[in-house]
């Protein structure tokens, strides 16, 4: 198909390829550099709210648990979905169990990725 603008298709293809490489590199950086704040916000979107007996927000406790185990870069979504599948509990109930030290979601068996997604 001939371009209405009379553009060189090979230049268009090179530009698209370059744009894809840039986007892929940026996405890789984003994927590897989440923050505690982002993960706590995601946890709040799961409905986790409230504090423990000394007033520490439950999202902070859950994310600190994951961070301590070196799993922050994996993200809360994986850990929470895996915990829900393993326990049958709600995100709020899971957070409460983590706060009372009755559950460590970083030590649960990993469900197949297809189930988690």
Describe the fold and architecture.
This protein is mainly alpha-helical and 117 residues long. It has one domain: Helicase, Ruva Protein, domain 3 (Orthogonal Bundle). It is built from 6 helices and no strands. Helix 2 crosses helix 3 and helix 3 packs across helix 5. The longest helix is centred in the N-terminal third of the chain and has 24 residues. The model has no long low-confidence stretch (mean pLDDT 92).
Quick tags:
Helicase, Ruva Protein, domain 3, 6 helices, 117 residues, mainly alpha, 60% helix
Largest sheet: none
Estimate the strand proportion: under 5%
Number of helices: 6
Q: List the secondary-structure elements in sequence, H or E.
A: HHHHHH
Q: Which CATH architecture is right?
A: Orthogonal Bundle
CATH uppermost class:
Mainly Alpha
- Euclidean distance between termini CA atoms: 40 Å
SSE-based structural type = mainly alpha
